[in-house]
Design brief:
Elements: H1 4-7, E1 13-14, H2 22-35, H3 42-54, E2 59-61, E3 64-65, E4 68-70, E5 78-88, E6 98-106, H4 111-124, H5 128-136, H6 140-152
Parallel strand pairs: 1-5, 3-6, 4-6
Antiparallel strand pairs: 2-3, 5-6
Length: 158
Amino acid sequence: MARIQDLLDGELIIEELQAADKAAVVREFSQLLARAGRVRDAGALERAILERESQGSTGIGGGIAIPHARSGEVPEMVVAFGRSTAGIDFESLDGMPVHLVFLLVTPEDRPGDHLKTLARISRIMRGAGVRDELRRCMARQEMQKIIMDEDSRYPNGR
């Protein structure tokens, strides 16, 4: 299983999401991945993620959302991250606004890796200290370092 630090590079971090709602967040990330050359068709990816969202919100509580999909639009697994200072209504399980968003997209033929990576993101975001640090820091490099440092605490995915 890939570690988050192997999947998330600085160009896939949005310091301040412009989106005000769930659909706009997904669009913003899809367009970012298209500009970075990580996705074949941003519109198709957006539809795949929103279809997954229609099955149940990926707002997991604690100010975190992990929208995700398996898609033929990506040749390899990709993780992106964004922050919203204002907060976004993601229809989260706890009813609270989302401030930290991870996007995970995996090729269709890797369902096991998809689930393991979702679990890994959930694990590294479990600590309130990490969430607070990510909400406070200003620079993309800082955000990346915080995520990488927390990810490295779990070398074997445990």
